[in-house]
Amino acid sequence: QVQLVESGGGLVQAGGSLRLSCAASGRTFSTYAMAWFRQAPGKEREFVTAINWNGVSTYYADSVKGRFTISRDNAKNTVYLQMNSLRPEDTAHHYCAATRLVFATTPQGYNYWGQGTRVTVSS
Question: In whole angstroms, what is the distance from residue 80 CA to residue 98 CA?
Fold first, then answer.
């Protein structure tokens, strides 16, 4: 099992940046694919980005491609989401997720979730 704790959320002006962190517990963290999802009020949880177990492969939703970067440091049991050029529509609760399978773009593909961290982008 893996336990996940997100941090780094906050309030930022449009055009600014934030870096989210997801700290994981568990000796087998390096075998998990990791992902970030987000959920805005009144909307369904949506895929943001994912990274495979060794960090070689990544995938991004079209809405964040070119602005966000996912990375991982298996030695620190941590995955990151660097968020640049933030827009008001990026405002959402952001969740870290993990799976022992190859990464997916749907919430159903992930077994483990953090409690999330809030990102608010003001105009």
Answer: 13
Residue 109 per-residue DSSP state:
G
Q: How many residues does the chain have?
A: 123
Coarse DSSP helix, strand, coil percentages of the chain, rounded to the nearest 5 percent: 10, 50, 40
How many angstroms separate the CA atoms of 42 and 45, rounded?
10
pLDDT in tens, 3-13: 999 999 999 99
Q: Contact at 8 Å (CB) between 69 and 81?
A: yes
E-assigned strands of 63-111? 68-73, 78-83, 92-99
Pairing of strands 33-39, 58-60: unpaired
**Ordered DSSP codes for 9-43:** -EEEETT--EEEEEEEESTTGGG-EEEEEEE-TTS
Count CB neighbours of 115 within 10 A: 10
pLDDT for the residue 101: 86
